[in-house]
Amino acid sequence: MLPTAHWPAQIADALRGLIHAANTAREQGLDAVPPRVARPLIRLYRHGVRVGLSEVRPAPGANAKQPPGRLLLEVLRDREPDVPRFVTDLHVPATNNQAERDVRPAKTQQKISGRLQSEQATTHRYRIAGYVSTAAKHGVDQLAAIRDALLATPWIPPDPAPT
Fold first, then answer.
1. What is the pLDDT tens value at each position of the chain, 163 positions in all?
2. What's the angle, vertex CA 99, arms to CA 96 and CA 103, rounded to 5?
3. What is the spatial distance between Cα 79 and Cα 75, in angstroms, rounded to a whole number?
4. Could you give the dihedral angle defined by the CA atoms of residues 141, 146, 148 and 149, in that order, rounded to the nearest 10 degrees?
5. What value does the CA radius of gyration of the chain take, rounded to a whole number of Å?
């Protein structure tokens, strides 16, 4: 990646603009970012990805280590409908920051205590933590959710709105 490349800032600015537009639309009670607002930002995003792909050439060879940023650019291109999904469905968060924060305490405890060395125990712990966290995000009392799960009548999240 060239130090003078403009495409990284262009992609970042477009995504920040889309996140701001999504937050504004949410505050206004809209279901999605208005197309007149989203279209130019998505166009900038796509253009930045295309330019980045043209400048960060793939390394030759099937198993060659790719240059920094190449794999991310390919994901941004190949999964393009998924990246700005938060623009058309305001229920979708723009980042995974909350999910990362939900997992962080468990990972920290695992590292500090040295417990949960088995993959199965760690998987069970994360499933329980994810279940409790999701229930809380839906306004369900965490202890009630745990009790109901232990009584074989677990709380189940509602189906997401169709896209």
1. 556 789 999 999 999 999 999 999 999 999 999 999 999 999 999 999 999 999 998 888 777 888 888 889 999 999 988 888 899 988 888 877 766 666 666 666 666 555 556 677 777 877 888 888 888 888 999 899 889 889 999 988 887 666 5
2. 135
3. 6
4. 140
5. 21
Distances from the Cα of 18 to the Cα of 1, 39, 47, 53, angstroms = 25, 10, 15, 21
Q: What are the φ/ψ torsions at residue 109 (nearest 5 degrees)? A: -60, -40
Helices (H) and strands (E) in the chain, counts: 7, 0
What are residue 49's phi and psi, to 5 degrees? -65, -45
Which residue in 88, 92, 95, 54 sits closest to 74, CA to CA?
A: 54
What is the distance, to the nearest Å, from the Cα of residue 114 to the centroid of all Cα atoms in its chain? 29
- Cα 55 to Cα 12, 48, 63, 119, 123: the distances in Å are 17, 11, 20, 41, 40
> What residues does each domain of the chain span?
7-88, 97-150
Residue 88's nearest CA partner among 49, 158, 38, 47 is 38
